[in-house]
Amino acid sequence: MTDPTPISFDALRARVQSIFETCGVRPESAAAVAQVIVAGERDACKSHGIYRLEGCLRVLAAGKVDPQAVPQIHDAGRAVIEVDAGGGFSNPAFYAAKDLLAARAKEMGLAALVIRDCLHFSALWHDVEALAADGLAALSMCPSYAFVAPAGGREPLLGTNPIAFGWPRAGATPYVFDFATSVAARGEIELHRRAGTPIPEGWAVDREGKPTTDPEAALAGAMLTFGAHKGSAISTMVELLSGAMLGEFMSREALDFMGGSAALLPRHGALVLALDPQVFAARSGRNPIAEGEKLLTAIGAQGARLPSERRFAARAKALRDGIPLSAAELAQLERFERLGLAALDA
Amino acid sequence: MTDPTPISFDALRARVQSIFETCGVRPESAAAVAQVIVAGERDACKSHGIYRLEGCLRVLAAGKVDPQAVPQIHDAGRAVIEVDAGGGFSNPAFYAAKDLLAARAKEMGLAALVIRDCLHFSALWHDVEALAADGLAALSMCPSYAFVAPAGGREPLLGTNPIAFGWPRAGATPYVFDFATSVAARGEIELHRRAGTPIPEGWAVDREGKPTTDPEAALAGAMLTFGAHKGSAISTMVELLSGAMLGEFMSREALDFMGGSAALLPRHGALVLALDPQVFAARSGRNPIAEGEKLLTAIGAQGARLPSERRFAARAKALRDGIPLSAAELAQLERFERLGLAALDA
After folding, report:
1. Long-range contacts formed by B58-61: CB under 8 A, 24+ apart
2. How far is A263 from chain B (nearest CA, A)?
3. Same domain flag for A139 and A288
4. Interface ipTM
């Protein structure tokens, strides 16, 4: 095994963008998607890094994403802004509307962005970090594929339904969390199945709704939410707010739409809320960011880790030393560059 | 032990309101506080029912709540409305601003209500249920007293930080959850201490941050959040959004303000978000409430219980048969009626 080769953020981004353009994606969309994929790799979020390239190319090859979709913004001047991704990837739609969302939140105190009809593959921390960089608190959520049972149930109705939150910090990386409301990722159960090892208790139930540690039974049954009935309630909220409320797919319909298979990325909507702490705090005379620091530094002072700390440390290292790619990763990158979508058949 | 005596909702509300008025609370505020206390009793939420009367009278006797405070609304016509409780109870402030919040959410798509400087004792489901009755989705949260350690830590920095969500359902009670982000309530640990029984694992850590099942060690140490690091992240979000962002107390400062004792109700702010599904869904052509029903009825159809179901069942029974009060509860009610605040010394 050879040592990994470091590559700079900008160089890797340019290469990934070029792959998407080769595969027929319009340059602005290719740039947006490349940005989030390479940001994941930079932050050592391998599950949301260049590993995602193949999945993105597969939906392109399957014709399940519109590579030329131009995000359309619908803005009636209220606190809700909509952007229609037009069956394209979610990220170009978010970037197309982000500045308008931030400006509206600063003007009105808070604002919401509805992303319609998008293919979703990226972590939500991108969205909330981008808004935190504008001084805004942000909450982002979306449904996914229905593989998770509600507390007390056995049939999968809920998605892994991620939820992310960002809070600006002065002169530092923001406070950011981003997690699935399921206990584990479906991919983790799949890894246990391949390895022939049991999954931890509490991850899943079998078809009859009984707790199981057998990965096969878990995949045939349903995953569970984190935090028992409380996590189940939060996951249900994500379905309602970012599915039903937007008139977009909830996780069950998203799965049905793809023929019951999770082989391709899910198509649904997403909801992003942006809140301006300066507007909310104004009458108090207090500085909300300085107040927030009292809590966040006290959490760190007792040795507890803040969410995203590891990610930010990996980022600092990657920006200094380059993003380390293995020989296999580099070889795949070169194959995609050379063959485009045809690499999928190779 | 005699059978409980049933009393009608209206009769009990009138008696509780009259007790508050006897104790010097202005009639509008007495009515608002009586409404939520008796609603708790009606729903068999004993911990938020007439049990709360004594705590309310204690803060009145201690001069820590302003009984004559008149909520002041500050509205700049944006998506954020503020109501200053002026050191009074939170409920009169919420009711004073609720209709304006609902109208603003319908006009703009979503709106936020900031409640400032209030004494808080009631469950949050009142607020989100009231907004769901107006056809709105709602999210409500507030800090409390710092008795909960962040994940990986040992010092209490977080409150039990409740979070509530409401979603309107056609022709039925709304979808409502309302829970503390701590695993358990502090009162439950206190009950174990009095009974001399161990607390379940995962509820608390001792002063050194080690897991403990000893209620004494738990009370001297710190409680834990539900859902490990995910619950801890959500609790931190509640501190930031409903404390720091508003320029109001977070849970640590609320506890310090009361001299480190939780004997009296906490003073802080609260945040309520209201979202109009009809605005969010409009361009989709779908009915968001009907879409939500697909999920909610499917959860029920597999035998899983929706949050608040037990509460709604208790409510239906109480409205039909009356609210059952024990002889001891009736005797205390009569003592408060006869003696007002002097009953506390008796």
Report:
1. B58/B263, B58/B264, B58/B344, B59/B119, B59/B264, B59/B265, B60/B23, B60/B24, B60/B25, B60/B341, B61/B341, B61/B344
2. 23
3. yes
4. 0.96
